[in-house]
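Exercise: predict the structure of this protein bound to flavin-adenine dinucleotide.
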Amino acid sequence: MTNGRGAPRKPVILAVDAHAAALRDLSSDLRRRFGADYRVLTARTASAALARLRRLQASGDEVALLLADCWVPETSGVEFLGSAHALFPAAQRLLMFTFGDTPAADVIRQATTFQQADNCLPKPWHPAEQLLYPAVSDLLAAWSRVARPGPEVVQVIAQQWAPRSHEIRDLLSRNGVPFGFYTPDSQHGTEVMHYAGLIEDDLPALKMFDDRVLIKPANADVAAALGARTRTDGDTYDVTVIGAGPAGLAAAVYAASEGLSTLVLETEALGGQAGTSSMIRNYLGFPRGISGTDLTARAYEQAWTFGAEFLFFKTAAGLHPDSGRIIVDLRDGEQVASRTVVVATGVSYRKLAIPGAEALLGAGVFYGAASTEAPALHGRQAVIVGGANSAGQAAIHLAEHASDVILTVRGSRLADRMSEYLIRVIDRTPNIRVRLNTEVTGAHGSARLQAVTLTDRQTGTTERITSSALFVLIGAIPRTDWLAGAVQREDNGFVLTGGAITPAAAPAWPLSRAPQLLETSLPGVYAAGDVRHGSLKRVAAAVGEGATAIRLVHEQLDVATVLDG
Ligand SMILES: Cc1cc2nc3c(=O)[nH]c(=O)nc-3n(C[C@H](O)[C@H](O)[C@H](O)COP(=O)(O)OP(=O)(O)OC[C@H]3O[C@@H](n4cnc5c(N)ncnc54)[C@H](O)[C@@H]3O)c2cc1C
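Solution:
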């Protein structure tokens, strides 16, 4: 859309308030700060605002932000934002309320819980520099991340539903690398295929920012092409952290900030499981929630700024003591020497053992919420397996894209394993259907998933339904196979620490002192987060354990220094 002089029309900020004076002040403050890039429009009633929005929609305009007073006449601020959002789903929503208005506070609490508003702001909003402008800037940044994606560092040319295509896009997205995705039959895809002389067999191919083209690259090739460090300098570190999920990142932040030389090894992507969560609502200090990618990207920046070194796509494959140091063996044959180690390798999804699922992995069958696939489900039906919070979150996120989301739960009540607030959002989301007492027993399709079989656990009745995607979130197993024989583990693989270590079991605790709180049966090796037996499986708990492990590392290093001295 262009204005009369051929320049692109600015996106719109629309403010709605019945009070003429307040609306005038608000629009003048908004114009002063944002007028160069946005058109600020106003309306005093919901019907006038909606009529305006319909005209904007018809003329192909963009709406970036909607601000509504809680008590917009004719309807309510929340209802207005709901109707407006249906017209402009990418627009951010800010609900305004007057200080001291207790009923409005209740409305706001509900609206943010049920994700009917993205933020709220008190009136008066002065000083604007401290209240209005930061809130509006944050929301405009969130809008522009979706509506104005930055330059593509990587262009992925691949088939939509090929397993490796999914894997590469998932890794790029979870590691925060801006990329574009093009199928080989799209216009740009065809151009790149032609430019690089590619044939179908060469896919997936990656066209990098510097025009290099990588054909069927391994993860480590992608990391190297992006300039990531792929080898250590051969130094002995004070602490090596294995895993860059919340526990590992917290350990890295505390270790590096306290002057310890720190190396972090990560096999896949920053953020671990938390990095796959579309919205974490219960982490302290983020009342309106934060995406797992955002939270863990901030933690990475923090650790990196303090001096922690990161090696990506490096898999720890074993560890053993050697002359007062711990040697970590990597899968690629490299070794890392360290005075102490924090194991923070978390858990991975339990696999769904049903006919057809393995063959369609990445081609419609996904473990975890697979946020990169969500936009491709527009107008399609998706099925989720699982009845705990991660499945609930995934359902709510996918419902924003898919036409229908079917949440299949083996048990007879959602409340058994899911938080109340998620159940309430699910109840209010019309395109999520919950099927209790139901198991997914088959996945069908040749090149990609087309249907799944559902079986009613009470009656045994089976039903085949169309589905483009099957998301499996059915619990987890610890990622500790590589520690077999090195440290004591429970039968189910979780790492034992502190008082849980059994003196008689192998490998035996070798010292006369007792193991420290998070110390494993190998002195100087600690476990933190989900990987540890008895862990709470929460971001905050993992972060707390990562930080605590470093306190214990200090004690260990102090003792070692005295002995060495
Ligand atoms: C979809 C979803 C939503 C969630 N939502 C919430 C929520 O809202 N609130 C909440 O509190 N919790 C939530 N959780 C749980 C929370 O994410 C976890 O408790 C938390 O991430 C655990 O952190 P961690 O660091 O211990 O392990 P992880 O997050 O699992 O991280 C472990 C890391 O170690 C890496 N790794 C594994 N093996 C190796 C190896 N051999 N070598 C090198 N690296 C390795 C992995 O790739 C991974 O990056 C959610 C989980 C999921 C899956």
